Amino acid sequence: MRAFFTLPVLAAVVAAAPRPQDIDLDQVEQAADPVLVTPPVDVVSQVVNVAAVTEQAAAASAAVYADPAFNDGSSSKKRGVVARDESPCAKQPKGSGPVATPDTVEAFLALDKLSAMSTTATAPYGYTEVFVNKQASLSASMYKGLTTLTSYDVPKCQSLCDADSDCVAFNMYAERDPTLKPDATKCPIPASLTNYKCTLWGAPVSAEQATNFGETRASFKVVITASNAYNKNANPPSINGFTGPSGYGGAINAPLDSNGKDTFMGSKFFPFSQEQGFTMQSCTSACTAQTDYNKNHPNKDGTWKTCAFVNGYVLSKNGVPQGLYCSMYTQVWAASYATNYGQYRGTARYTVSYSYGYTLAPVSSKDPNDRLCHAQKKRSPSSMCFDNHLKHDTSVTPMYAQPGSFAACAAKCNHDENCWGWAIDQEGTTCAFYSQSGREMVDEYDALYDGNGQPIYNSDLDFYDSACFNDLGRGCNQQQR
User: Fold this and answer.
1) Which of 50, 214, 274, 465 is deepest in the core (most CB within 10 A)?
2) According to the UniProt record, where is the region Disordered (predicted)?
3) What is the pTM of this model?
4) What domains does the chain contain, in order, with CATH numbers?
């Protein structure tokens, strides 16, 4: 009798057990390799322009439209490099650290002073130590720039990272550099100096990425020591149109729903590069774009699947971060289902980290009649119909972004019941969509400025209120053709 009652119970447990959404390693391995950047050794400071969050989100949307997810069972520009004399044997900027005696590579790497600076440094609050006192610096993805400091100052390097909203990791190290620009004939091995360098990164880093051991310039050997790296612990930002983020220990392994249906919709993988960092807006934009694609390509019965939840995380191969992996679902799953910590393929080990979930927000409770032209008289104080711009340092994030023209983006906003404002870049090729109206942007977020008489930054977006357009995306005062 006991066996008779036990079997149905076991069957119920098996049916309810999570069915793994295996990481699509075919998709990962077919994608481009992550772009790893090695900071230059012959500059004092450098700022690197990487793709903006809206550009990364738009690229994610475009990737979905080009290759939708299925469940089948702007180049960077370097700027800010300090000008220097490029002639042979030109004097190099003065260093700040101790110089070894004798002046050799071996003596430099053995300097106790530098080693002590590294090992006594503590991880800044809000950061996790990645490695300490390595004799190599990072070659990693989403390189954001370099600053030469006047001392071995981990807190200063941290403050530079904190000042950049897209920085998620930094590397502090000492570097043996030449006092003169080496020349193979005139000064092949000049005396050395020691620089303290701080590099910033827009994607999480790992100890396996400490592979920059220096270089040889003429016959002078540049080497590195006292290298410490730290990852930021802060959660990614909230995103317009979604609730979250919710942090997880692994990737979601969802069971079938209560009706025995599979809620997993598929996944998209975005390799890290100078155009793609640890940007969760890429995942939410992919989620929104997937729903839009499904709506325009419904099933035979007219139904389609809506992406209601997306789980994004960093996927690493043998410890080296490869990119951002986004899994999409038709319903929300709790942290208790985040049980996929990685997989093996042959001898390669793929692991999951920085896993977060975002849930599609409920439909706006605002009056939809306030969104189009006929409501302008009622909303005239809040209409933002021309010459308004998003501040370049605003904390307001879009629901999603995608490529498109002015007219196409206006129409897209007015057909999305959650969209109350949209913005377009100066080139008129990429749009971002917001759940806030123009008046909310001004009164609640101080996110807009009037372009009349004020300088407009090239990176700023032109903002438009949804009340300024009809349902075809035409301006309210624009004649029908």
Assistant:
1) 465
2) 72-98
3) 0.65
4) 17-34+235-360 (no CATH), 86-232 (no CATH), 368-468 (3.50.4.10)
